[in-house]
Structure formats: C-alpha cells, structure tokens
Design brief:
Length: 461
Amino acid sequence: MTDQQAAHNEDRWSLVAVAGVLSFVAMLDMNIVNVALADIADGLNVSAATAQWAVLGYQLPVVALLLPVGRWLDGVGLRAALLSATAGFALCSAAAALAPWAAWLIAARVGQGACAAVLFVLMPVLAMRSVRPEVRGRAMSVPATLGPLGAVTGPAVGGLLLDQLGWRWVFLVKIPFCLLALLVVRRAMPPDGRLHAPDRRSLADSSLVAAGVTVLLLALTLASDGPAWLALAVAAVPPLWWWLRGPGGRPVTGALRASGLLRAHGAVLSLAAGFAAMHYVVALHLQREDGVSATATGLTVLAFPLGMGLAGPLGGRLADRYGPRRVAVLGASLTALGLLLLVPLGDGWSPPDVAWRLALAGVGMGLNGGPTQALVMGAAPPGRAATIGSALQLARSLGFTLGPALATAAWGLAGSAGGARAGLALAAGAACLAVPLLALPAHAPAVRVPEKSVDVPLTQE
C-alpha cells in the first residue's frame, strides 16, 4: 500500500503512543542505573568497577548493534520483531532485578541492551507507518520528544526508587509499561510478516560493527577520566573500515546517499553532542565551583527537559503545516542561541540565570526532534526505513557519548579558571554546526537503492 492509498485510512495513535512509551523506557535505562551503582556494589558484594558494568552492559550492545539490527529489521515482520523485543526487554529487566550475583546481572543487562537496540530502531518506523503522511510530523514528535526525556529524567527517577524501595526496583519499574505495550500491539497492529534469524553474513557484519563501535564507545566513555583515552578510538577504525567496504556496509552507505540526508545525520550528532556537553558542564560547575546544592542543581537542569516537553508537540504540528525542514532549522537555531547565551556568564552563576537559558535551548530541542526525525524517515528509500532509522539512532547515541568527552578535554586544556566557559563554548559550537547542516537542502542522487521489502503503512482500510 502506498502513502497516497493510505491517505484516507485510519490513524493508529495507540501505536504512536506505544512508540513514545517504549522510547522513553529504553532511554530511561541508559541513565537510571547510574545512581544505584553504589547500592548494587554493596548488595552483590562487588567492587565499584564491577558494578559499573551494570551500565556498560546495557549501553554497549545498544550502540554496537544499531546498524546490524537496522539491516536485519528491513527484512522481517515489524509486529513480530516489536513483540519479541518488548517481551525480551521485560524478561531481562526481571532477571536483572532478581540477580543473586554480578555475572547474572551483567548478562541480563547485555540481553536487555540487545532488545533495546531493536526498540530504538523500530520506534520511529512504527510512528511513521501508523499514521497518514500529512500528520507524520505530529506522530514522529512523540518518540522524538519522550526518548530524550527518558534519558534526562533517568537519574531523578532512579534516585526516588533507590531511596524508597531499593536498587532492584530500578529494573522492575519498566515492566508494567512493557506489558501495556505488548497488550496494545497485539490488539491494534495487524500481522505483517514473520521473524527469521540473521544469516551468517549478518552475524559477521554484526561482529565487525560491534567490535568497532564498542571500542569507540569505550574510548569516549573513559575519556571523562582522562582525555588521553580518546587515542583508543583509533583502534575502532580497522573493523569499521572493513565493514563499510564490505557487502554489509555498502547497502547502509548506499541508503544514506540515496536518501540525501547525510547532513541531517550530522546535525543530529552535533545537537546531541552539544546538549550532552552542556548538561555535563552545567551540573559540574554549579555544584563544584558555585557550591549550589544537588537539589538546586537538579531543579535548574530540569528547565531543559521542561522546555523540550512543552515544545515537542508544537514542533510536530508546525512541521505538518510548514514542512519539517523549516521547523527543524528553527529548533536548532533556538538551541544554539540558548547555549551561546550560557557562554558569557561569569564565574558567579545563579540558578535562575542558567535556568531560563536552558529552557530556551530545551524549547529548541523540542521543536527540532520530531521534524528532524520526520525529515529523515520520510526520505528513506523503499524497504530501508529501519536502516535509516538505525543510522539516525547511532548518530544520536554517539553524540550523547561524544559531548561529555569533548567537554572534559576542553575543560582540561583551558584550565580550572576558564574550563567551564571552554566546555560551554564547545557545546554551543556543536549546536551552531547543526543549523547549516539542516538548512542546506540535500540533493539526492537519481539512483535508488534496490527494494528488499515495502514499508507498508499500518493504517486500516
């Protein structure tokens, strides 16, 4: 069924809501465990370094499997993949909560991360296919807004659960949302194909990408302790190069070139890096340099997700009316302006001065998220929606990891006196780079990627 044939069909907003909820839950798990690491170490009688793998065990497979999962999902049934990934995520969450020792917990988190990689790729595809093209901006704004909100609110939610119920509830809290999503998907989503195991070529591709991306992610993560760790990223080049030059990488790069949206992916990475660097610098500076309490710091930083949450639905509506590119550029410009206004602040920051600037940047991110996702997914070649979605999620994930690492390096080079300003200047520069990347229209080449499957909308006749 084509988009034109689906124009008069019923929109399935319950599936859009599922995409938003699962995006929130999957992103929540990226940060919610951080605050519980000390309690996990005490509860399982392990070192803090071992407990850290409760976080890395989730994050590494999420990022490492995104591209291979995207290619695999283009050839399987969306409903079957969604049900399997959601059920697997819930089961691994329960297993992590019941873990009697550290190895059990880490294994459960690795399985949970693998299921989350599937969910990250599927959510924008699900939102896109569940509605008519003319309301796609509103639909795409739901997972594009709720996903980052999950990442931002993770530490706060984790802290509340830790204080009231203990560390095991940090893993259990997501299960009711998964069960609700399973119920809605089973009732509202028609069957659209079967699930099949990846072939040997796909498994080999997954190994190469996983090796390269894992080394890169570890280098960026460890760089927060010392910028010299960034040199480890060089080891990620050989496996990623072999994959890009082989039969597994060529279809991915071909789909990106055919869609003409390489610059949009760069903009997503730049904005994510700018946001993550800003969040890291502001929280660190307020608490360590200005002596602001943890509660006041948390409330100040909360201005960003509040602005983003309020502007997200508006961004989708504006994109449906004026086009996604214009609204995406407007959002990126406001985010860049908010971060630029942070740079001139002197040494004595006050929470209100910081909060209104963060709110402005958050409004920009809210206006940008849905339209950018609609712009990218709407230009995906036939049968390659999951591939394009996986590349988009990888760009965002790498940006979130790259931002704090670069901010740490900038802070160290500038010294203690100007470290915070250097970190914020880097964050603002990354956000500014996204504006021209989005504003310049991409010229897609005439050649099209051969179809493997058809992106059939999930609307009913």
